[in-house]
Amino acid sequence: MLEKTLEKLGLSEKEARVYLALLGIGQATVQQIAKKAGVVRPTTYVILETLSKKGLATTVEKNGKVYFAAESPEQLQQFLKQQEQEISTKVEELKRAMPELVSIFALSGDRPTMRFYEGKDGVAASDDDAYRSLKPSEQIYAFSPADEMERVYPGAFTVGSERRLAYDIWTNVIYSSKAKLPYMNSEKLKRRARYIPIKRFNFGAIVTVVPGRRVQITALRERIFAVVIEDPTVANTFKAIWDIMWQTAEE
């Protein structure tokens, strides 16, 4: 619809309706335009003033009465150019202000950053963020409910993560399952693993740790989502818990 197109160009819903009404009826009074556009008269008058400022409407006086008319649709191109200029100006203003804004943020003290990702695609995007942030010598440490992983991601452990392998990253996994899985340790898949029986400890979610940087908790049961906490203290605390459990898990 033309109304939606005009909204994408930067007009509000009601501005688009009034502009299209003007195009359709030519010169008209506020009352006529309001009826055609389906917008109340006081609001229509305000919108016409706004459209006039944007160069999309004009006024004509006849016999002491004010009529409004639409400017040519070609004027929309000029409207877009004006928007581009305004955005360009705002970008330059932000560039000038950015050093001071960053300085204020830095002085306010360290704070954890939290992000939420929904669905398999969202979790994959979060994983990629972690992989891109790692140096070649760095590794990932994880707790994993293996049975749940196989249910949601069939072949997750036999094939491995193509994205992780593409980044050449090793992962160290403590996994829980009903039975020990002989294929978990794999040089080819760059994975070291130890086992905890599910009756001893049943992981409810995947927990992935990048020491000194971030923790990702991924839920797989009712719905799939991930919560990422970026904070050195939190990440190192989870890594310490991982170290203790690694020592007691079965090779």
Provide the low-confidence segments as ranges.
none
**Can you tell me the overall shape?**
elongated
Oligomer: single chain
Give the full name of the CATH homologous superfamily of the largest domain.
Endonuclease Chain A
Q: What structural class is derived from the secondary structure elements?
A: alpha+beta
Largest sheet: 7 strands, mixed
Number of strands: 9
Name of the CATH class of the largest domain: Alpha Beta
Q: According to CATH, what is the topology of the largest domain?
A: Endonuclease, Chain A
Write the layout of secondary structure elements.
Elements: H1 2-8, H2 13-25, H3 30-37, H4 41-53, E1 57-62, E2 65-70, H5 75-107, E3 113-118, H6 119-133, E4 140-145, H7 146-152, H8 156-159, H9 162-166, E5 171-177, E6 191-197, E7 205-210, E8 214-219, E9 225-230, H10 232-248
Parallel strand pairs: 4-5, 5-6
Antiparallel strand pairs: 1-2, 3-9, 4-7, 7-8, 8-9
Helix pairs in contact: 1-2, 2-3, 2-4, 3-4
